[in-house]
Amino acid sequence: MKKQHKDINRKQQQPLVSLSLIVTGNLNSSSWQALSESIQKLKPEYTDIFEIITEKPDSAQAAAWENESTRQLSGKDNLTYIDAASSSLEYIQTATREAKSEYVAYLDASLMERSFNINDLLALCQKEFIPDTLLDLHFQNEELLRKKEIPMRSIFALSSAAAKYMAEAIPDNAQDFRYSLNFLFNRLDIPSKSLVIHQNSPFDESKVYTVFGKPGYFASRRLKMKNSLNWFFTVPVRELKNKPEWRYLAAYGNSINRLIFVSLAIALFIAMPLLSLNTSISGDEDKHVFQAKSVYNYFATGGKDKSYMKDIWGPFYAYPISFDVAMHILTQVFKIDHIYEFRHVFNSWMGWLAILFAGLLAMRIASWRAGIVAMLFLFLTPSFLGHSYNNPKDIPFAFGYIFSLYYIFQMVKEFPRFRNRTIILMALSIGIALNVRSGGLLLIAYLGFFVGLAYLFSMKIKQMFSAEGIRLAKKTLLILLGIIVSGYILGIMFWPYALEHPIRGPLDALSIMTNFTVSLRQIFEGKFIWSDHVPWYYSLKYILITVPLVVFLGLFFFFMLLPRLASKGNRLWMFMIFFTFAFPVFWVIYQKSNVYGGWRHLLFAYTMLVVASAVGTEAFLRLFSKKSLRLVAAVPFVALSVSPALHIIRNHPDEYIYYNELIGGVDKAYGNYETDYYYHSVRQACLWLKDKINSDPQLKNRKIIIASNFTPAVSYYFRDMKDSVKIIYVRYYDRGEYDWDFAILANSYVNPYQLRKNLWPPKNTIHEVKVDDVPICAVVERKNKEDFYGYQELDKKQYPLAIPTLQQAVQFDPRNEAALLDLAKAYMDVGQSDTALMYIDQCLKVYPDYDKALNLMGIAYM
Predict the structure, then answer these.
(1) How far apart are CA 392 and CA 350, in angstroms?
(2) Which of 51, 119, 458, 806 is the most buried (most CB within 10 A)?
(3) 531-535 contacts: CB < 8 A, separation 24 or more?
(4) In this structure, are strands 50-55 and 79-82 parallel, antiparallel, or unpaired?
(5) What digits encode the pLDDT tens for the residues 822-859?
(6) In what order do the strands lie in the sheet with 134-139?
(7) Can you list the alpha helix ranges (DSSP code H) found in 465-537?
(8) Is residue 833 exposed (0-12), middle (13-18) or buried (19+ Cβ within 10 Å)?
(9) CA 558 – CA 819 distance, rounded (Å)
(10) d(CA 495, CA 399)
């Protein structure tokens, strides 16, 4: 008994929480009477901590309203009348500004039919009110109506500081106060708590849903758009003039960063498609266009046309190319002639979506400023930006990857109560990723793994085996199973191989993708290597030397400040960030995957590396409380961003060829690492040659043969000149074997020694496409065809004719490997091995590793 008295005394010593009740709605006489009777029930101990704010009743309603309790509140200055306002919103804003208590509650009394015990509301204040939490209050017989999605029904309350901020942040012309408030709560991720007032409702329940219910679909879309524009543009501009004091805003940074984030996203949405318009066809793109047509024919014929299974360029049937199929349908429906430019616009929007969701995820984890940093870092990564224009595999998959991870993070945050919207979008995101690459299966594993960790982190071992723990596990497993099955079905709906083999197909495709069967020759560390025998550190090194140093600086601070980041209850999130960019790289190394073209196959994982870098950058900047110190701390990041930014400006549309300061830039990497492996430069060369042909009457009036080592692009850009131009394919080192007038030659597959020693481009190059100071594509005019004539004579075994002809070719161009090799062959065939060896030696000085020349040398010595 003594202990109970001590507890009561201790409670009495604590100050009571004060509450301002703002009455809203159009009250009639019966409503005023019900509200008056409720106030009459107020206990004396609450009169000092309770304030009521309302419009002043007219003379007819005053009699129903006024009583001893209202007069007592008025005497204590705890009854405030607000003059009639032009709108309900203006009234609410004025009333909220006038509120003097710690908490503010809003009561729409227009539906009140009878009184309620207001003391229960004030008692609830003392027990349950939590700062920066929305308290959704309802009466005990209203629970059934909650299924009808009524936001903030009956009474809702929040701290006075939050209420004052919210009231000012609502759009000036808002027509639905509750909907607008609910929008703001969601934007700020304010937690909500549902509390029951243990009384029967005083409202006319038959009208509650009509008044408080969720607007219809189109009305809610309009309201959301209006509130979004207000939140992202109007509020930040307003807050530049009047700084808000509510400390909760520190959770995501100040509103000006929100404005910058959205403005940057809009700017990139416009800029990236414009930048993509002058980009060439990429190395794989024509194959995707062809395969998309075959997949479309499969569906158009009801599965009878199986041409998608033809193994022309490798196992393309294993690629779920839904993006390309969608592009094929759109180009056919709208009769698009410029199909590749059209594709590039949409491809760039896939890149933009990847940038946007990387920014949104960084914002969710850290702040709006971190989101801005993530978007800028991805945009200023030349490799990522360049591939965004015309890479129909890696960029759409990068979007699917970061899109899925955004909602996996959201599910972990919401655990154990997942919102329906999150569940639906989680399934959709898996479907999108799986529609582009079979690697989307990885996201299914991620989902189960990370939600499982969230379950383990949320309770102790004993709780897991309790009835409640088992029930929660079963419920979570059912939700995950529903998401996985739905996402899987969405992912294979437009993938013929998977439709015909629902289980085996995607697994086969994943195995094929991990260990691609085609081996490609490429330059790495100054020599040719084959893609199925790359060093284990191949991808790591390419990332190290091609990612802007500013990204690595942010990543350094991510790891350095990881204990600080993880100490704020974010341990699981920090692990998720690290795992989702590190695991794919580890798996590629562990599996000894067939990789080529730099690290483009890992662009999807790079999105999370950038998120980690942005979070690290934000954590570093937060170490400095003063704005001036933060500006100084940001200087290294700005300085290191200059180099990639200038590279993009100077070298567009070939900016994907980028090497950072660790390797000495593109000039130092030239001949040691790949440059234009994706043939981005061919379009520029084509357009230059077209202008030359059209402006020269002697060229314009005759049939011209153009040779190239990438004919899909040349054929496309000369498609309007089919009558006067013939396109043929040649390998660079076989160029002497064909008849041509001009050649458009990218430096792909050119020997690294020749690149380093300036032995490429060949003689009679009339135009070069350069990145920084090195040539990546050449337009060659053929002024001497003796190498071609000599090859023809050699092919016909007319050696007496072939030798002098080829000698003329070699005399004209001593660096012509094809002519030198053919001349050596001719001397071999007439039995003059010593002379043949002389020309082989000359050939090897131009191309030391030329396998054909070395083979011929061995035969000559034999």
Answers:
(1) 9
(2) 806
(3) 531/594, 531/595, 531/596, 532/594, 534/595, 534/596
(4) parallel
(5) 999 999 999 999 999 999 999 999 999 899 999 999 99
(6) 79-82, 50-55, 19-24, 103-108, 155-159, 134-139, 192-197
(7) 467-492, 496-500, 504-514
(8) middle
(9) 57
(10) 19
